[in-house]
Amino acid sequence: MTKKWLLIIFILLANAMQINCQTVDELFVSAFTKYRSQDFSGAIVDYTKTLALKADYSDAYFNRAICYEMLNKYQNAIADYTVVLLLNAKDENTLLNRGMAYAKIGKNKNALNDFTLALQYKPDFANAYYQRALIYENAGMDSAAIKDFTEFIVLNPNSVIGNFALAKQYDAMEEYAMAIIMYSKVIAMDSTYVKAYFNRAYDYDLISQTDKAIEDYCKVIQLDAKNTDAFFNRAYIYNDLTEFDKAIWDYTQVIALQPQSADAYFNRGMAKVHAGRKQEACDDIVKAAELGDRIAKKYYIANCK
Q1: pTM of the predicted model, to two decimals?
Q2: Percentage above 90 pLDDT, the chain
Q3: What is the spatial distance between Cα 199 and Cα 184, in angstroms, rounded to a whole number?
């Protein structure tokens, strides 16, 4: 073969390689554009074409895995994340994502392994601590969850979600004083966080600080006027304090929001009994009985007929 032909073949091969690279880049950009527009199926098609041309393109595997997750195809996502890890075993972000995908399909042991490995490679990986804490929380491993949520907060002290998660964990361990401290921290960061006020109110009631509980339930109702649980719990406290008119008012709000609430009718009826309003009480109790409350039916037969 002459030098002339060798030169022509070399030029053709070089041009082919250039065209191939351009095609890979174009497909990758097209896939990402479709991902941005939430066309996840279309993005997967383009990422797959990209990988057919460049089988070791880790970014394409990683992005395709994310698209699979968006379509709830977690097994496919795990397969792609695994390929990325074969190309780069110490990629902590891929370990985090694969661990979260494992958690979605209930493979918590695999998830824990991935989160723990990610933390070995990156000891200050806040999100890995948070995700591992969620696994521990769901498994009832309270002490381990507390430790990881705390590590997360050390790295992200102003995280509302992290501080709230730690507060709930203290609740699970019945450490109500610590839970209240954490809920208060959440409220200091976000004064509109309804769940933090509600949970703190519940804890205040458990430790017999009823004035503070009522104050928090009032705040919940101020922020969420349709929160029937707040009305119901506040009514219970008013009952205990023998402030029956206030309890009756709260149960009335529950009934307005949930007309089929047998509990609200029965409890309002009992509050009316204590307030000396027997006929009105019997009207509520018979309504509770009609809605299926067996205790209300027995009470009505014994006291109202």
Answers
A1: 0.83
A2: 88
A3: 10
